Amino acid sequence: MSVKQQFTNLIKQKATELGFMYCGISKAEFLEEEAPRLENWLNNQMHGQMHYMENHFDKRLDPHLLVPGAKSVVSLLLNYYPPETLPENSLQISKYAYGQDYHFVIKDKLKSLLTYIRENIGEVDGRAFVDSAPVLDKAWAKKSGLGWIGKNSNLITTQVGSFYFIAELIIDLELEYDGPIKDYCGTCTKCLDACPTGAITEPYVVDGSKCISYFTIELKDKIPDEVGGKFGNWVFGCDICQDVCPWNRFSKPHQEPAFKLEPALQHLAKNDWRELTEDVFRQVFRKSAVKRTGFNGLLRNIKFVEEQKEKN
Question: Which HAMAP family has this protein been placed in (predicted)?
Answer without folding.
Answer: QueG
